[in-house]
Design a protein that fits this description.
The protein is built from 13 helices and 16 strands. The chain has helices at 12-21, 33-40, 51-56, 93-103, 122-131, 172-182, 195-226, 230-237, 261-270, 277-303, 331-341, 366-370, 387-393; strands spanning 2-6, 25-29, 61-64, 75-78, 110-114, 137-138, 141-146, 165-169, 189-192, 312-316, 345-349, 355-356, 361-362, 375-378, 397-399, 412-414. A hairpin with a 4-residue loop joins β12 and β13 (361-362).
Length: 415
Amino acid sequence: MTIGVIGLGYVGLPLVVAFAEAGERVVAVDVDERKVASLKRGESYIEDIPSDRLAAVLGLIEASTKFAPLARADAVLICVPTPLTRNREPDLGPLTAAASSLATVLQNGQLVVLESTTYPGTTRERLVPLLEESGLRVGEGLNVAFSPERVDPGRTDYTLKNTPKVLGGMTPECARRAEELYSPVCDRIVPVSTPEAAELTKLLENIFRSVNIALVNEIAVLADRMGIDIWEVIDAAATKPYGFMRFEPGPGMGGHCLPVDPFYLTWRAREFELSTEFIELAGKMNQQMPYFCVERIERALNHVSKPVKGSRIAILGVSYKGGTGDIRESPALRIMKVLGDRAGELAYHDPFVPELEEFGLRSVPLQEAVSGADAVVLVTAHPGIDYRALADEASLFVDLRGVTRGLDAENVIRL
């Protein structure tokens, strides 16, 4: 079997490697020439895929910026970004461009699966009409399904292989073909009745996290006002063996999914004359957290008689989560922007993000970052760093991730 993959980012590249490792030939397509060139060299740009793992299966992978080779594929997976516009509305531009290009090379009997997160109805109402411009029809030479990606970058306990794969086909035959496709690389397939059900499943998963993170963030702000240690409260609540699920506060949400996906559903809900106020309120709360964190940093500096202006502030971790270099929607960038606007002198250390072009900064060695800093601010906790030791050494250590909980020191300030 030959598998086509459109979009070679955090979702697409792991699929390319997984299918190749299963012995399938893979046609990997992306409009980004740098990604294609890197793939051809066997050099991975995704933390979850080591270069040696990619290089080991390079003989089974054909990488291209052209869609023509996809005509040879038995199945094609679409894994392109689905961002938001400036008005926080779905931007399906990358998806429609990919689908239109794919339609020019579609062949009778091919299966097309959309993996990009989107609102319910996208597969049926947006993707299928574009594919049918090829002259093929669903159920008459064209098979279409939706199967949402469930990638959690940087995670090793749950991977593509052992994370259950949800899928919904346009027809029972489409679903059967999709299940047959994924079975070699996924241990468990979870079929649902329609693409819409699969689309909403992915949104529910991420909105569930978004809402609960917003809740604990709001409680953290209240606890701060009340002089209560939120980490002590969470640790205590988590001892209940039922009815409570642990979520932790932080500087805000990042990555492609959590800050974006809820808005896909709220936008779609308006077409059904429904206002999803609960979901929108959670989004608003999470977007406010970087500003609350800046306030916390300011108060910490004020406590030692220092203003933000002119203070040397070392930021530890600028990616949106530990163990990755993904800075999409990272709250660290918003925190740095506000501190910079207030004339703070910034430096940062992140072993996964060598440069931040928009700030004109490069990551500096850890000891160089913290040495002489008026405030050391932990925004993203990467593995392999002894943050407690750093807290002991720093004149002022602001912990926005709770890694120092249980440490009672006057120079340590927690969220």
